[in-house]
């Protein structure tokens, strides 16, 4: 992943973690099944984002050829 991807991912991940911690503290029943499903969903989403970004970066790096400039005379 490129540096911009890490920055963007971090900017989205940090508020999500803070929000989740706040939500867990609000839960009076302490239902851990929902927490487990939430963590599994976050892991799947993280894996998907990293995999798709890696494929996109490989495609971008494979095509180094610059387009031909047109000649306007």
From TrEMBL:
Alphabetic keyword roster: Membrane, Transmembrane, Transmembrane helix
Protein's UniProt keywords contain Membrane: yes
Transmembrane portions of the chain: 6-24, 31-50
Protein's recorded name: Uncharacterized protein
Organism: Pedobacter polaris
């Amino acid at each position: 992943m490129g540096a911009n991807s890490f920055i963007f991912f971090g900017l989205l991940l940090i508020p999500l973690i803070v929000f989740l911690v706040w939500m867990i503290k609000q839960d009076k029943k302490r239902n851990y099944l929902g927490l487990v499903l939430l963590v599994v969903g976050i892991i799947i989403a993280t894996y998907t984002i990293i995999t798709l970004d890696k494929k996109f970066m490989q495609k971008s790096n494979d095509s180094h050829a610059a387009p031909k400039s047109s000649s306007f005379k």
